[in-house]
Structures are given as structure tokens and as C-alpha cells.
């Protein structure tokens, strides 16, 4: 399987925002201090509407790990979204909001709202999850034994290993049963007295090679057929995972183009009553968040103006490490531009945001900003060196 990765191609041109928005960001920084991480809830709602417009039959399970801010969960829940969680704390963030919903009485209500989509679960987590009759993914026989022993009330979804070619972040080296062993694993689950309700896959994050989805759907369809013919078992849920690409630059093909392909293949390969789920993470939040930081130091290094700002790769820019993404650092100030370095605030030289930002001459105290920074950024921020994560501010809630 291809393990090469690309960066997201989030370039300075794609980062353009209008004058009014720039003034707004500066105002928010004045009111709240810096670094400040701004979440635009209207943009999240817009992304959700766009997804549902093109994939109307697909139930959205927002992948909470992309940005686990509880207010985002609330906004998406109000839109009708469900959630993909991968740990007990993520489960509880969502559960706090759904526990009082009226559909609680329904026997499988929690499945309608939450899928626990981490194929590897600690025994303590399974023991805690069991009371909720959760829907959980698995991809190996050891996990099946753990589920039978510690969460026998769970419904199961088998995660398949599918091609990741050309995705920015690949996941197949860590997760997914080989398609060749899938039916045997499903048979083993039924033999253990458990019920496999569905199949799932993830084509890799920021997937711009749409053939990955087509191949994954075909692999799933043949496994579902074999389950019926060999085991006499009907699989009723198909979870097509995440990977829906964000338009970090104009070359990224649209969700509409992907949706046309997906809708046609789903109609061709699966019965009309198949429940289709998706777990978009990045797509719903990446372009909905912005960061404003402040220049706290200035030096000339290797003949280059070098700025030290109060956010860096241990914090909101952590996506540069974990997500293979780049976030251009932009200035509010106008003026002739020079190639400049931008460093984060910690004592580690690794805390380098870029060695080639095009910036005007900046002074200490000047503000800089980055856009399209909502996914896998604030969520993976640390407290390294005693610097806390950026303050979060919500707009258009
Ligand atoms: C991370 C993850 C997602 C979200 O992926 P995106 O590429 O951000 O859409 C969905 N499902 C699972 C199981 C994941 O691990």
C-alpha cells in the first residue's frame, strides 16, 4: 500500500480574506488578547449544509478528534449531526449534550448519535461503554474477544483496510482488517454471540484521489454479498468514513464532484435500505477557524528577518507536524515584503513555523494571522514549556 504523503497545499493565495474580516480579527485580538483561536459557527453550519446537499442520504457522524471543542459539537448536534468518537472523554463530550434528547427511549438511540470508531479500545473503556449499548468498530480477533468479555451489549462494525493512495494522511498501516479475512472475522463475531451490523473504512485524510472511495465501496459490496451467501447474515450499515477534502487551494476538486461519484456507486452497489454513514472531520471545521498571534521578538538570523510569535508548532500550528499541513503566516500590516522566518515561543528549535514567510517589516507587538486552521490544530495543542493552548473565541454562534 502506498504510504507517501502530500502536504495540504494550504497556500497564501488561498488564505485571502477581505478587509472587513481582517478588521474583525484584529478587533477580536484586542478584546481577547493573543494567541486567540476563533471558531466561526456559521461557517461550520455552511459546511454541514453543503455536505448534506450533495450527500443527502448520508448521515453525518462528525469526527470529534478533528476539533473537540464542545461548542462545535453543540452547533453540529443542532444541525442534526451525529458523532464519531475515539476515546471515553470524547464520548462524554457528546453524551453530555445528547443524554436529555427525546429520542432516548429508542432501543438503539445511541447508535443514531454516536459511533465509537477506534478499533482498539482499552478494557476499562469497554467496561464503561457497555452500559450505553454502543456501536463500536473492530478489526481483529483479539479485539473481538475483549468486546465479548467486557462490552457484550455492543453492536459491531468491522473496519476494513482500503487503499489510501494519494491521501494527505494515511491510516491503513494502523487500522483495518484485510478484505481477505473480513468474512472470517464477521463469522467469528457471530460465533462469539455478537452481532456485526456494519462495515466501515477510511480512505485517508484529505483524500483527493476519489478512486480510493470507489475501490473501498467495491470491496465493501463484495464482502456484504459474501456475508449473505456464505453466512446468511445481512449487513445493514455502511460507514464510508472521513477523508472528504477541504479546498485548501483551488486545485482541490469539490465535494460535489466526489458526491456525484459516491451517490452513483452507492446506488449501483448496495440495496436501497442500506444505512450509509460518513465521518467527516476536517471537512466540517478546517476552514471555520482562524488564529491571531502576536510578534513577541525579532532578530536577524542568516540574514533573514526572524519573528518570534506567541503561538507555534507545539500549539495551534501542531497540524504542521501531525497533520502534514501548512498554515501561511500573514500580516495585517501592508508594505514591501521580505522572505522571513517565523518561530514559535518555546525553547525548542523544532518550534519553527516557517523559514520562508513573505512578510512586511514587522515590529514587536504587531499581529499576524493564519486561516484554514480549524482541523487537527488546537485539538493537538500541548502545554509544552508552560505555554497554554490559544484562548478560544466563538463567533456567529
Ligand atoms: C480521523 C478520522 C476521521 C475523520 O477524518 P477526516 O479526514 O478529518 O474527515 C473519521 N473516521 C475515523 C475513524 C478517523 O480516525
Low-pLDDT windows of residues: 1-5
Summed up, the domain count is: 2
CATH architecture annotation of the largest domain: Alpha-Beta Barrel
Radius of gyration: 22 Å
> What fraction of residues sit in β-strands?
15-25%
The number of distinct β-strands equals: 18
Alpha-carbon distance between the termini?
A: 42 Å
Computed structural class: alpha/beta
Could you characterize what this model shows?
The structure is a single chain. The two termini are 42 Å apart. The relative contact order is 0.17. The chain has 397 residues and is of the alpha/beta class. The longest helix is centred in the middle third of the chain and has 21 residues. The strands form 3 sheets. Strands 1, 12, 13, 14, 15, 16, 17 and 18 form an 8-stranded mixed sheet that branches. It has an 8-stranded parallel sheet with strand order 4-3-2-11-10-8-6-5. The protein has a two-stranded antiparallel ribbon with strand order 7-9. The chain folds into 2 domains: 143 residues, Beta Barrel (Lyase, Ornithine Decarboxylase, Chain A, domain 1); 245 residues, TIM Barrel. Strand 15 and strand 16 form a beta hairpin. The protein binds pyridoxal-5'-phosphate. The site of pyridoxal-5'-phosphate has 16 residues, from helix 11.
